[in-house]
Amino acid sequence: MAPIIVPKLTNKKAGNRRVSSTAVPSNSDSLVAIRDVTFKYGARTILDNLSLDIARGKVTAIMGGSGCGKTTLLNLIGGRIKPSRGQVLVDGLSVPDLSKKELFALRKRMALLFQTGALFTDLSVFENVAFPIREHTKLPEPLLRHVVLMKLNTVGLRGARDLMPSELSGGMARRVALARAIVMEPMMIMYDEPFTGLDPISKGVIAKQIRELNDALGITSIVVSHDVVETCLISDYAYLMGDGRIIGQGTPAEVQQSKSEYVRQFMDGRAEGPVPYTYPATDYLDDLLGGGAR
Amino acid sequence: MIGRKAVEVWVGVFVAAGILALGVLAFRVGNLTSADVVNGYHIEARFDNVGSLKVKSPVTIAGVRVGRVSEIRFDPDTYQALVEMNIDGRYKNLPTDTGASILTSGLLGEQYIELEPGGADTYLKDGSRIKVTQSAMVLEKLIGRVLTMFIDKPPEKK
Amino acid sequence: MNVLRVLGGIVVHGIERLGRGTMFLYEVVAGSWVLVPRFYLVIQQVFAVGVLTLLIILVSGLFVGLVLGLQGYNTLIKFGAEDSLGLLVALSLVRELGPVVTALLFAGRAGSALTAEIGLMKATEQLAGMEMMAVNPLTRVIAPRFIAGVIAMPLLAAMFSAIGVMGGQMVGVGLLGVDSGAFWSQMQNGVDFHEDILNGVVKSFVFGIVISGIAVFEGYDAVPTSEGVASATNRTVVYSSLAVLGLDFIMTALMFGGI
């Protein structure tokens, strides 16, 4: 296992991003490496000294309750925010240090699927999927049409090409967004809550799609979700987050058999456990009888 | 969603209408055609008082505009105002004894220079000077003159 | 004490937003050269912003012209100066009412629409999605709308003034009996292209920049919720209108007041 050469965190205008300073021993099959990352939003600490690896070519799940920082993690990987401390490495590049141009070049190789699909409401399904091609390439129209129809066919929506996003159901919108995400053949796709709000059939369809795409295209997938069942079915490795930290990790089988209290509460969906049900409040009897302002 | 062709057509119509409106304003509402002097030559004249004459005030002959005032300066040697006029090149036959008077348009309107051609055989050229000038009527002086006329003139019924 | 703190907070907040807005607009304009080969994006926005505002501008212009004709006549006839009605109507429109009223209407209709559209795109993560696809939303979405607003405003103001003059003529000459020859000749003699018309165009151009700039910034800066977008739209209309009126005074003083 060769150590990764880690670029120094210097002033990006100095242009010496590639100068090595420390070699951090780690798994060289990681496409994404998060090292000791802390992220604060104002006074709140969202991520606390977090470290994880996303293996190349595999589907990695990141699960956790609401507000545990999963989406923040995706935003860090995508370079939309910078960590207060720590390193975020994608394919050997330190994301927070990239110049605007380099960041854009990196983003062309990554795809992020939003929870809502984030389709452009003023464009048809066809135009939505064609968007990245039109923006980044000068592909002639007939070829463009072929590529778009092929990708739409992969998600089973070739016949819906002329519909507008407002006419699509939630599941269909997400599949169109998926087609748009793969149209530039990225090396990695990040899914932000792909199963939330879908009926069981759509959930099964999306899950199948994620797994098949990953294997067929040889890409890396990160699935951020709190849908335990579907996620565990399709993932090769899983991380469980809580309070901005990793509280459990392993293959889906290992996680499901974990003895940790945190993990058990999450996996089994228990109301009570390390994550409290009640919001902190004063004594109940005092509150009722105190006759205060409210 | 309107088709691409329709959008382009409508935008073209819009821009054309806008430019047309600007043209209407410039030529029909404003005075752009009777615009500026073509191939002008400069002549100058000295006045004791230019009143409210301004740069770009009209210069007329027989009431027709033939040029504009291009510059108004104070001449410290003669204590007079030096007015430079830009005359349209079409009017090359102004005699050298032409006179220039500053008149007022209407009773209270803007002031302009009216040229009265003389009878000489030589013509004004670029840089020539008009010798015969009549300054602007200053209203206060006029009133003062009328009043003194009344005071000086003995009352008739005596 | 608290009042002072609140006041200070508001001022600091305002200056911070002004600074951020200026830098934002600078980025938008600086990166907009890439639109030259893709001019259709701008054309699309000129349609949305200009063509669709045309109707309200033309109708308002007509009515303002009609009213100017009526009111102008009523006042001038007292001095026997009704022949100057054309001059009065034309100068009022070209110097002031054309640019300013058009700007206010534009802010209300097109400005608020721009803010709402951009704010909604932000709230539904379309802008974020675009960023993640390595497409700069400032260039692709914001710049065309800003440029379209700047192009459309002077054209709309010119059309407002032109149709207003015709409205004034309809009332003055057609209805009230002012002599048509006097109406037009006094106007043509009194309205100077450089002094009056060009200044009016400069005013409307400045208004276009200000309104479009405020509209796109408020949309981009909106809180990505439905209340956030609504209050951003509200701010656009209020701030643009105030800015237009304030700048109008300053520009009038500079252009016509000899200050």
Would you list the SSEs of chain B in sequence order as H and E?
HEEEEEEEEH
**Strand fraction band of chain B?**
25-35%
Low-confidence stretches of chain B: none
Helix content of chain C: over 70%
Outline the biggest β-sheet of chain B. 8 strands, mixed
C-alpha Rg of chain B (nearest Å): 24 Å
Estimated structural class of chain B: alpha/beta
Shape of chain C: elongated
Number of strands of chain C: 0
Structural class call of chain C reads mainly alpha
Q: How would you state the average pLDDT of chain C, rounded?
A: 90
Question: Span between N and C termini of chain B?
Answer: 96 Å
Strand content of chain C: under 5%
Question: What number is the mean pLDDT of chain B?
Answer: 81
Low-confidence stretches of chain C: none
Description:
- The complex is a heterotrimer of chains A (294), B (158) and C (259).
- Chain A is α/β, with parallel strands linked by helices.
- Helix content of chain A is 34%, strand content 25%.
- Chain A has helices spanning 70-77, 100-107, 125-136, 141-154, 170-182, 200-217, 228-234, 252-256, 261-268, 284-289, and strands at residues 4-7, 20-24, 30-41, 44-55, 59-64, 85-90, 93-94, 110-113, 188-192, 220-225, 237-242, 245-250.
- In chain A, the strands form 3 sheets. Chain A has a 6-stranded mixed sheet, sandwiched between helices.
- In chain A, helix 3 packs parallel to helix 5 (170-182) and helix 4 crosses helix 5 (170-182).
- The relative contact order of chain A is 0.14.
- Chain B is of the alpha/beta class.
- Chain B folds into 2 domains: 1-35; 41-144, no CATH class.
- Chain B has helices at residues 4-29, 139-152, and strands at residues 41-47, 58-61, 64-75, 80-87, 99-104, 111-116, 129-130, 132-134.
- An 8-stranded mixed sheet of chain B has the order 7-1-4-3-2-6-5-8, with no helix packed on it.
- In chain B, strand 5 and strand 6 (111-116) form a beta hairpin.
- The relative contact order of chain B is 0.17.
- The model of chain B has no long low-confidence stretch (mean pLDDT 81).
- Chain C contains 8 helices and no strands.
- Chain C has one domain.
- Chain C has 259 residues and is mainly alpha-helical.
- At the B-C interface, helix 1 of B face helix 2, helix 5, helix 6 and helix 7 of C.
Would you kindly provide a brief summary of this structure?
The complex is a heterotrimer of chains A (294), B (158) and C (259). Chain B is an alpha/beta fold and 158 residues long.
